[in-house]
Write a structure and sequence with these properties.
328 residues; 2 domains; 7-stranded mixed sheet; 7 strands; 49% helix; 12% strand; Glycosyl transferase; membrane; transmembrane helix; Glycosyltransferase_2
């Protein structure tokens, strides 16, 4: 048996909602899902209205009348897609959780394929919009984003930010999202040791309204990137980051100083008044600075924490209170 929670983050998507709901219900009640997951298969749909001002919540209210599976969480204001997903994750009670955008760009008929992959043992199955139906102003930055994320994270996915994804219950319980981190969920999941994969999915052009993520999101996106790549990764071990910077800086500073010294004593070239010497000294000082910053960071991060940031797959023969202590 499989129970599904479908999470739908939405912000000002009034026009799309009736048709979207229609197609989502059609896909979830299709014989294909029953065939894949048996007659006991059940689902809930959690619509998270991220502070819409166009009356989206009223439309959902109307759609709820003859659809008991539909639930609604309405934010007081627009907090962003990450927070909307986060609220949905907390409210979800299904064994498998699926996220899908409300603008009909994602195709609900892909849900079965994603969930089958989760049942194979993956924790995150991400959609790969192989043929993306968006204008160049979106596809080009997106390609760049995927390339850099792939390079820096070492995770071989093509499409990190597809709205259509399926999650295991364990992964949902361990995700701690904030800011704009929804784009990096596969990275965070993989770093925690979860099994991540992707499958190609259909993608449609936007029919109503317009995208909420335009070129103006480039800089915030870049900062999120730096934040996830560095802060999230090195938060627990600042010395791993600053130590590397310190070693690099110190090494080059040392080489330059050595070079100047050798030139002075072997070839009698005066050491003073040479810009390269200043660079060498600067790099050595920077090296010391990076080292002390790392040390400080290390001291701060070793203050008592409840959980070391780990994620446990299984425990055996441990009493519940100990497990609580480990996972709290
Ligand atoms: N969304 C949201 N909060 C926001 C921005 C977007 O919940 O602050 C929702 C939006 O309504 C849609 C999904 O996130 O259901 C993806 O947004 P959009 O279609 O604008 O992104 P794109 O497909 O253009 O990348
Ligand atoms: Mg969209």
């Amino acid at each position: 048996m499989t129970s599904l929670s479908i999470i739908v983050p939405l912000y000002n998507e009034r026009e799309s909602l009736p048709e979207f709901c229609e197609s989502l219900f059609a896909a979830l009640k299709s014989s294909e899902l029953k065939r894949c997951f048996g007659d006991e298969f059940s689902f809930e749909i959690i619509m998270v209205d991220d502070g819409s001002t166009d009356g989206s919540d009223k439309v959902i209210g109307e759609l709820m009348t003859d659809r008991p599976e539909l639930r609604l969480i309405s934010f007081r204001r627009n907090y962003g897609k990450t927070e909307a997903l986060s609220a949905g994750f907390r409210a979800a009670s299904g064994e498998v959780v699926v996220t899908i955008d409300a603008d009909m760009q994602d195709d609900p008929r892909e849900i079965a394929g994603l969930v089958l992959k989760i049942n194979e043992g993956f924790d995150l199955v991400s959609g790969w919009k192989r043929e993306r139906n968006d204008p160049m102003s979106k596809t080009v930055p997106s390609k760049l984003f995927n390339l850099t994320t792939r390079l820096f994270s070492g995770i071989p996915l093509h499409d990190f930010n597809c709205g259509l994804k399926a999650y295991s219950r364990e992964l949902v319980a361990s995700l701690d999202l904030h800011g704009e981190m929804h784009r990096y969920i596969p990275v965070l999941a993989k770093w925690k040791g979860f099994r991540v994969t992707e499958i190609p999915v259909m993608h449609h052009a936007r029919k109503f309204g317009k995208s909420k993520f335009g070129a103006s999101r480039f800089l915030p996106g870049l900062f999120d990137f730096l934040s996830v790549m560095f802060i999230t990764r090195y938060l627990k071990r600042p010395m791993h980051f600053f130590g590397m910077m310190s070693l690099g800086s110190f090494f080059f500073g040392f080489c330059i100083s050595l070079y100047v010294t050798i030139e002075k004593y072997l070839f009698d070239k005066p050491a003073g008044n040479r810009p390269i010497l200043f660079l060498g000294i600067l790099l050595i000082i920077l090296g010391v600075q990076f080292f002390s910053t790392g040390l400080l960071g290390e001291l701060l991060s070793t203050r008592p924490s409840r959980n070391g940031g780990w994620s446990i797959r299984k425990t055996a023969n441990l009493p519940d209170e100990i497990i609580d202590r480990l996972t709290d």
